[in-house]
Amino acid sequence: LDLRRDCKYLDSLLPLVTLGQLADLADVRNLETRGLCLQGLETFIDNNLLLKAIVEEQLNTTVINVSSVGNGVTATCYCVEISNFPFQLIVKISKHYELMCEEKNMNEFLCKKVSFKIPETYFLTEKDGVSYLGMEFINGVSGRTLKLKHIKDKKHLANNIIDCFFDMQSVHNDKFGAFD
Fold this sequence. Notes:
Distance between the termini: 33 Å
Mean pLDDT: 78
Helix content: 40-55%
Strand content: 15-25%
Number of helices: 6
Strand order of the largest sheet: 1-2-3-5-4
Structural class: alpha+beta
Number of strands: 7
């Protein structure tokens, strides 16, 4: 229908289709279902809806775009473009709230003590055991130049998720038979 009507509704609905398929434990051995779920997970990973909601709530702004900057040992970083000042920020996402608090405190301490630019901290919040640290974006050399590596990693993550569902659906035991 998208092709016939020259519109792009499928792209916006694909994450919802994926969520429904995976929540219903749809059979991902079917190539069409697997393909839709892979595309949907890649789109969902790109869109990161919770991250958008948190930034909009914390800074009272509208998120325009989210792109991955890179992964570290304890956190994943995203560059978030917003509709008002500061127009761009970095959001670190981690399950280690204590480390994020230490980083926030250290950044604030360093900002007062050094003559070179340290990213200003905009917010630190925690939701469902995941912490979000919003900081000033300082343009320069960064993990953003590794975009091709990120696309490969994104596809690898989506494949791993689907493979886990495939493995789950292939479970058999002697007492009850197939897990279907």
